[in-house]
From TrEMBL:
Annotated Gene3D superfamilies: 3.40.50.20, Hexapeptide repeat proteins (2.160.10.10)
Residues that coordinate or bind substrate: G68
Domain of life: Bacteria
Catalytic residue list: H138 (proton acceptor)
Residues under site feature: Increases basicity of active site His: D139
Listed NCBIfam families: NeuD_NnaD
A family per Pfam: PglD_N
Source organism: Streptomyces sp. R21
Domain PglD N-terminal: 4-81
InterPro entries in the record: AcTrfase_PglD-like, PglD_N, Trans_hexapeptide_repeat, Trimer_LpxA-like_sf
Name used for this protein in its record: Acetyltransferase
Length: 229
């Protein structure tokens, strides 16, 4: 069975560990996390083996990066750049209850948690985090590093650009684009296009402020994931 390490040992990483266990097709070696206080401990019964750079000493293990939160949702992109691993080191983790249509595709390093639905011709890029009960409908495009918190629903033909963050329960009207590294607040209803690098909230969603993520200019323009084949 192929070995896997999960980068990160926080909430999303622990959820991914449970999905790996439920899927049963990868052997989870443990978590890697730069918080030295966790090294040698266990989270939910899974060992924290060491810091993130230990991944270079485990060349046979595949990898998934499970860090980030609404205050720092560029964290996965920074780690991908720092670790500089070949794309084929990255695994996709898909919970067995996720319904992924045959016409949809999921990129390397992406995670789909329980009860997600990808209805038809949905493209999910690399290093995308899809939390439980997210519904992606026909022709949606979710670009690399995007995050979809639990219960997000995208209408048909929606595009979430690179690194965009959709908060819990957010709704996005069909054929709408959410710009790169923009954040949609939890429970918001997006009715029209959101420019890159902004925080929008409410129903209907309105601009709250600029997005805070650091070094966005570089992350917006850099192509890391590349096209899916
Ligand atoms: C959008 C968000 C990032 C704003 O956080 P913040 O910058 O700390 O903003 P504040 O809480 O100070 O609120 C600023 C204003 O926006 C409003 N606001 C914040 N979030 C809102 C939301 N989701 N919907 C509607 N209004 C919202 C507040 O009521 C406040 O309005 P006011 O100035 O009129 O009082 C945050 O509320 C949010 O939704 N985060 C996503 C949470 C989530 O999905 N987590 C999942 C984790 S797995």
């Amino acid at each position: 069975m192929t070995a896997l390490v999960i980068i990160g040992a926080g909430g999303f990483a622990r959820e991914t560990a449970q999905a790996v266990r439920d899927a049963g097709d990868l052997k989870l070696l443990g978590h890697l996390d730069d918080n030295a206080a966790l090294h040698g401990t266990e989270v939910d019964g899974v060992p924290v083996l060491g810091g993130c750079d230990l991944v270079h000493d485990l060349p046979d293990a595949r990898v998934v990066i499970c860090v980030g939160n609404p205050r720092d949702y560029a964290a996965r992109a920074r780690l991908v750049r720092r670790l500089d691993l070949p794309t084929d080191r990255y695994a996709s983790v898909i919970h067995p209850t996720a319904a992924v249509s045959a016409t949809s595709e999921v990129g390397p390093g992406s995670v789909l948690l329980a009860h997600c639905v990808l209805t038809a011709a949905v493209h999910v890029g690399a290093h995308v985090a899809v939390m439980p009960q997210v519904v992606l409908t026909h022709d949606d495009v979710v670009e690399d590093y995007a995050t979809l918190a639990s219960g997000v629903r995208l209408g048909g033909g929606v595009r979430l650009e690179r690194g965009a963050y959709a908060g819990s329960g957010a709704l996005v009207r069909e054929s709408t684009t959410v710009g790169a590294w923009s954040l949609i607040g939890m429970g918001s209803a997006v009715l029209g296009d959101v420019p890159p690098g902004e925080v929008w909230v409410g129903s209907p969603a309105r601009r709250l402020r600029a997005a805070p993520a650091p070094a966005l200019d570089e992350l917006v323009t850099r192509t890391v994931g590349g096209p899916l084949t």
